[in-house]
């Protein structure tokens, strides 16, 4: 069968890259041919104009190191996205279209709202079967969907619907007669051995990996430094320029798995940062305040105690019982694979 995936494969975000890549590879393993619907980079994080704009601002401020990271990030993703076979349109040779994963159903986001007809299947030709795999509405409030009731009739045209979190499930089930399943993020369809095939850099130092979006509060930074000092570890920051880090890495999906695989400890505030901590069986802390998708993920794996931004030193020393986590992950992964197996046979 020919399968076209509609997702955000070309953002400068390691989680977005890996969810798109892992889903495609798993579907190929099922014996299908996979392509991705071409997505313009204009207005996205991988827009060359943004890279130029940010670089000019950094030059004016004398932050040349930041300019180098912007350029390296752009180049690394420009190279990485060549791994995706893309098509211009969904045509008659396509048997199935899969929408997801990531937050493509987040109608409170201006980009996804503008592109909603694409990401909710309204542009697919008649006769093509539509499936959603693990999209999320993120933190979109229900009143936004109430205002889009008529638009949401499109859910009834899907032959299979799944989402990646309970909040998306509870919200969307009110707007369709179809059954909705909750499945794992595509990155979890694969184990650590899959990702280790993409390690591009050997890492020998002992280090604490910090994968953080946005500005790190001073109180959190002090705790990170305390942990690193007490364990004689270097601090490696990924993506964001972290003041006080010994090594500052640009966003790069292959550098990402290279360092994740070797980290002694991880501190993050991101969804996929949490997922890859679990995949690589790391002792980690996540600051998930107000982030429903992370809180649900922690609850799923009975890791709620890893969520803190105050007593990090104490929590990082509480060992995660990964044999229990693995049991949950195996069941979750198998249920999710079963959804795909069933959906792609109907």
TrEMBL record:
Entry keyword annotation includes Transferase: yes
Domain of life: Bacteria
One function term, GO molecular function aspect: transferase activity
Pfam families, sorted: PS_pyruv_trans
Alphabetical UniProt keywords: Transferase
InterPro entries with a match to the protein in the record: Polysacch_pyruvyl_Trfase
The Polysaccharide pyruvyl transferase domain, residue ranges: 13-286
Name this polypeptide is given: Polysaccharide pyruvyl transferase family protein
Lineage: Bacteria, Bacillati, Bacillota, Clostridia, Eubacteriales
